[in-house]
């Protein structure tokens, strides 16, 4: 359900850009999705197939390409960078909780292929 | 197919919504209307808490309520029975959250010259409402004791984007394995600036503290 809301936003945005660029049809949309963005790619793909066929004339059958961005957290205490998915909020090197996410929560539209 | 080309976009999916939300916030400030976004999981006591808050503030401020539900008007009826205040029902049409556009439509149905405080009861859900800025002046999250003190760890974004966390149902703490101090630590780990206020919407404990905060907020918006 969460994925469907995000899919609708993407379709709205892509459709607007396509119309501004006088595009006839959008063949594919490439997204960059962070590992810790709370989006599940498999659910996202199911929503996508239904939504593009029902919500936009110029996006019927449009393909979805997802590039995953790894989640990386940085520790303020020891300056180490580590995998967010493996270790979470606590730094595996020094045990500090003064850490912050540097990438991995993105939901970006990278590019679209059109004709 | 020789005309196929690539258009680079490189934009966050939430960018348009964030822009609409900022515009709505500015508009509300210019009108002196305080919009409070209330988020939580289902069953945390949002409607009961809001009824208490409205009853304590309704003689001081003109209050409107917007109820976001996937498809029912039970909450709107409950608020009306408990407080006499009418609600606008926003049906999200199956969506799990409200975005700034839907909030704007609700706001446009109110007579803003006759309202000081608008309370937006978001869809009961700890994931999606956190990602879509509604345009509210401030957001609060209600965490109820039976849900457990670990919720801020499991749903970090929800507890990062709110200004106040109301820990509700503190009257039943003796029956649950719930450590209030641990809960506060978990909230502050995600959001050092969040105010944590323990309440019981059922018997009214702690509600005054939150009402004082909200009263100050409204006064400072109105200047």
* Gyration radius of chain B, rounded: 18 Å
CATH architect. name of chain A: 2-Layer Sandwich
Question: Which regions of chain B contain 5 or more consecutive residues with pLDDT less than 50?
Answer: none
Structural classification of chain A? alpha+beta
Low-confidence stretches of chain A: none
Q: What value does the Rg of chain A take, in angstroms?
A: 18 Å
Amino-to-carboxy terminus distance of chain B: 61 Å
Per DSSP E runs of 2 or more residues, the count of β-strands of chain A stands at: 6
Give a short account of the largest sheet of chain A: 3 strands, mixed
How many structural domains can be distinguished in the coordinates of chain A?
1
Describe what this molecule looks like in 3D.
The complex is a heterodimer of chains A (115) and B (223). Chain A is built from 3 helices and 6 strands; from the N terminus they run αβαβββαββ. Chain A has a single domain (2-114), classed as hypothetical protein PF0899 fold, CATH 3.30.2320. In chain A, strands 2-1-6 form a 3-stranded mixed beta sheet, with helices on one face. The model of chain A has no long low-confidence stretch (mean pLDDT 92). Chain A is α+β, with helices and mostly antiparallel strands and 115 residues long. Chain A has helices at residues 2-20, 41-55, 84-87; strands spanning 26-34, 63-69, 72-75, 81-83, 99-103, 107-114. Chain B has helices at 15-31, 46-57, 74-83, 100-108, 128-131, 151-154, 156-160, 180-190, 207-222; strands at residues 5-12, 34-40, 63-69, 87-91, 117-121, 138-144, 164-168, 195-198. In chain B, helix 2 (46-57) crosses helix 9 (207-222). Helices cover 39% and strands 22% of the residues of chain B. The model of chain B has no long low-confidence stretch (mean pLDDT 92). Chain B is of the alpha/beta class. At the A-B interface, helix 1 and strand 6 of A face strand 1 of B. Strand 6 of chain A pairs antiparallel with strand 1 of chain B.
């Amino acid at each position: 359900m969460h994925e469907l809301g995000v899919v609708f936003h993407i379709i709205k945005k892509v459709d607007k850009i396509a119309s501004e660029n006088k595009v006839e049809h959008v063949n594919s949309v490439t997204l960059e999705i962070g590992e810790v963005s709370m989006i599940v790619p498999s659910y996202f793909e199911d929503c996508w197939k239904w939504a593009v066929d029902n919500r936009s004339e110029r996006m019927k059958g449009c393909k979805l390409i997802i590039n995953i961005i790894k989640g990386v957290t940085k520790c303020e205490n020891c300056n180490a960078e580590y995998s967010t998915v493996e270790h979470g909020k606590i730094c595996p090197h020094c045990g500090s909780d003064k850490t912050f996410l540097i990438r991995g929560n993105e939901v970006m539209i990278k590019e679209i292929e059109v004709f | 197919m020789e005309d196929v080309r690539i258009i680079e976009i490189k934009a966050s999916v939430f960018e348009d919504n964030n822009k609409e939300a900022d515009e709505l916030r500015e508009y509300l400030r210019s009108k002196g209307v305080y919009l409070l976004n209330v988020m939580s999981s289902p069953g945390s006591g949002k409607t009961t808490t809001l009824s208490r808050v409205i009853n304590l503030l309704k003689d001081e401020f003109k209050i409107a309520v917007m109820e976001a539900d996937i498809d029912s008007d039970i909450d709107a009826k409950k608020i009306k029975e408990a407080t006499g205040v009418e609600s606008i029902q926003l049906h999200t049409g199956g969506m799990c959250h409200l975005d700034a556009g839907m909030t704007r439509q609700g706001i446009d149905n109110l007579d803003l010259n006759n309202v000081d405080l608008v309370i937006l009861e978001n869809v009961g859900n700890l994931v999606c409402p956190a990602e879509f800025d509604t345009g509210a002046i401030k957001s609060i999250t209600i965490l109820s004791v039976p849900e457990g003190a670990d919720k801020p760890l499991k749903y970090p974004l929800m507890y990062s984007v709110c200004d106040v966390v109301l820990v509700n149902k503190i009257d039943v703490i003796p029956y649950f394995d719930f450590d209030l101090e641990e809960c506060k630590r978990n909230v502050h780990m995600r959001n050092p600036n969040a105010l944590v206020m323990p309440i019981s919407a059922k018997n009214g404990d702690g509600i005054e503290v939150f009402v004082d905060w909200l009263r100050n907020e409204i006064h400072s918006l109105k200047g």
